[in-house]
Design goal:
It contains 20 helices and 23 strands. With 584 residues, it is α+β, with helices and mostly antiparallel strands. The chain folds into 2 domains: 188 residues, Penicillin-binding protein 2a (Domain 2); 309 residues, DD-peptidase/beta-lactamase superfamily (Beta-lactamase, 3-Layer(aba) Sandwich). The strands form 7 sheets. Strands 2, 3, 4, 5, 10, 18 and 19 form a 7-stranded mixed sheet that branches. Strands 12-11-23-22-21 form a 5-stranded antiparallel sheet, sandwiched between helices. Strands 1-8-9 form a 3-stranded antiparallel sheet. Helix 3 packs antiparallel against helix 4, helix 12 packs antiparallel against helix 19 and helix 14 packs across helix 17.
């Protein structure tokens, strides 16, 4: 069959066109890809190239310094060495586990947390992750010597938190430690291994204290060693920005006196010392305490268990307790203001008061006819049962709440409990029971369902001391160069002649009543003992609340001792030591 030359030429042209079209298509894809990589993905490529030939070191920003009101350093920084890991050098699970096995032979640490950190390393991340802060010289030497067994592991010098007074004011200052996965999920600006505030001022003001990290980038060879350490231009260097300093209202000398007074009893206890005119907290302590320095490196599990067994991390100054008889001034103010009692009225007191067939006992069987001032000074329950019989729970709650009970105090500490100031509605909603007349009698002496924190008690007694102002509590005096303004005090109105009855009773409590153990030689003190029964234990919390000088108050002291006995026996001597520390 004869082939048509024209048709054959057409077929050849078609094949050439198809071939050219396919070639053009693939060339177009390549050109587009090159264009995308060079224009749109430029930064990523440069970064990857840079990371493959360089090493990044984080320059950790020093945290801001925490001072007391007089400029004494409470928390600062010191130079230390940390063990770090470069995640991009450990790509497989097997490599991570091998490094872990070798590392725990060197570091004294919490092995469980160290393992979790290594297994959670972000894949191919070029930035180093801190494994252990504040390692010893011996640990540092071993890491350097055993580099061949520890791929990706290195050391870096950085500032670490240091608390020069150890456990002093630990429940206020707090501590820092490595961020956990829950915190990391809430704070995308932080990374694995970062040290963050975990408690107290360190936690609440973490973003202010932490500053901004810097970094250096240096060219390295395939072994990770700098190509030319002496060539300064081979480095990219960004200086860290230190955190801002914070000044507290605490007085370190008074804080020490307060903690020593609590420690001398050996019982779980707390104390709050405030200026009643401003609300500034001069000392706040909880015993037992803890040394925040131990948290600068991963905590051994044995140390952590010991802290938990002692409940040392519990800040008892902000927990709610049954107030007992330190509540009686509130009951008396309520009764006087409501004209349920007269200022010159006297009550027959003895071993018990009966409501129907129910016996309500007094702490002593001594019988007599007592004035309102004497009833308060000697904390006679039978007098206050009779007063409570004339009041409603709503009336007592009104004045308790007005003076600061059942409300947050404004103090810059997380976890402050609200407490409970009950009434009929509260009992119905929470216990599904009606309010009985006997509940009001217990309410009048500070028992019932009532819960008050030591910080709230400090506000209450500040209000009584000043006669008209209830200050918001304040721990932070200044941040950086900005002085923090004092909160405006809440005010209340009451006939000052009626309040004099209460104040005179509080003065007599120290002079001749149950609080004589808090008496000072040259300064007149007003105060009230409290012994609050702890349901189901047969024991009592010992309270003492005081202010001084009685005629011109400048300090309020509240002390609670857990299950330690009567307030006049246990808590009053502690208050005396604290007041001596303040005035001396």
């Amino acid at each position: 069959m004869e082939v048509n030359p024209i048709e054959e030429s057409r077929n050849k042209n078609f094949k050439v066109k198809v071939l050219l079209g396919i070639t053009f298509f693939f060339i177009s894809i390549l050109i587009f890809r090159l264009f995308y990589l060079q224009i749109f993905n430029y930064k990523s490529i440069i970064q990857r190239a840079q990371y493959s030939t360089s090493r990044i070191s984080i320059l950790v920003a020093p945290r801001g310094i925490i001072f007391d009101r007089n400029g004494t350093i409470l928390a600062t920084n010191k130079q230390s060495i940390s063990a770090i890991v470069y995640p991009d050098k450990l790509k497989t699970l097997k490599e991570k586990l091998k490094v872990y096995t070798n590392l725990i032979k060197i570091l004294k640490t919490n092995n469980t947390k160290l393992k979790k950190t290594l297994l959670r390393l972000p894949e191919n991340a070029p930035l180093p992750v801190r494994l252990q802060s504040n390692i010893s010289i011996q640990e540092t030497i071993q890491i350097v010597e055993k580099q061949h067994l520890l791929p990706g592991i290195s050391i870096q010098q950085e500032p670490v938190r240091y608390y020069p007074y150890g456990s002093l004011a630990a429940h206020v200052i707090g501590y820092i430690s490595q961020i956990n996965k829950h915190e990391l999920a809430k704070r995308p600006d932080r990374k694995l291994g970062d040290l963050v505030g975990k408690y107290g001022i360190e936690n609440l003001f973490d973003d202010i204290l932490r500053g901004k990290d810097g970094k250096t980038i240096v060219e390295v060879d395939r072994l990770g060693k700098p190509i030319d350490p002496g060539y300064k231009h081979a480095l990219i260097h960004i200086e860290p920005v230190p955190g801002k300093n914070i000044y507290l209202t605490l007085d370190v000398k008074l804080q020490r006196a307060t903690e020593e007074a609590l420690k001398s009893t050996g019982t779980n206890s707390a104390a709050v010392v405030v200026n009643p005119n401003t609300g500034e907290v001069l000392a706040l302590a909880s015993y037992p305490a803890f040394d925040p320095n131990v948290f600068t490196r991963l905590l051994p599990i044995s140390t952590w268990r010991n802290l938990l067994s002692q409940r040392a991390l519990l800040n008892r100054a902000i927990l709610g307790y049954v107030p007992g008889s330190i509540w009686k001034p509130v009951t008396l103010i309520t009764a006087l203001d409501a004209m349920a009692v007269k200022p010159n009225e006297r009550f027959h007191v003895n071993e018990a008061f009966y409501l129907g067939m129910t016996r309500f006992g007094d702490w002593t069987s001594k019988e007599g006819i007592y004035s309102l001032e004497e009833s308060l000074a000697w904390s006679r329950d039978t007098a206050f049962y009779q007063i409570g019989r004339r009041l409603t729970p709503d009336q007592i709650k009104k004045w308790g709440t007005k003076l600061g009970a059942g409300r947050n105090t404004g103090i810059e500490i997380l976890g402050e409990e609200k407490g409970i100031v009950p009434d009929e509605k509260w009992k119905k909603e929470n216990l599904h029971e009606s309010w009985y007349p006997g509940n009001t009698l217990h309410y009048a002496i500070g028992q019932s369902f009532l819960l008050v924190t030591p910080t709230q008690a400090a506000r209450m007694y500040s209000g009584i001391a000043t006669g008209s102002k209830i200050p918001r509590l304040q721990l932070v005096k200044k941040i950086h160069n900005h002085k923090k303004n004092l909160h405006a005090s809440e005010t209340f109105q009451i006939d000052q002649n009626l309040l004099k009855v209460v104040k005179r009773g509080l003065e007599m409590c120290i002079e001749t009543g149950t609080g004589q153990a808090a008496k000072l030689e040259n300064i007149k003190v007003a105060g009230k003992t409290g012994s609050a029964e702890v349901p189901g234990t047969g024991k009592t919390h010992g309270w003492f609340a005081a202010y001084a000088p009685a005629d011109k108050p400048e300090v309020v002291v509240i002390v609670i001792t857990e299950k330690a006995g009567h307030g006049g026996t246990v808590a009053a001597p502690i208050v005396k030591k604290i007041l001596e520390g303040y005035f001396n």
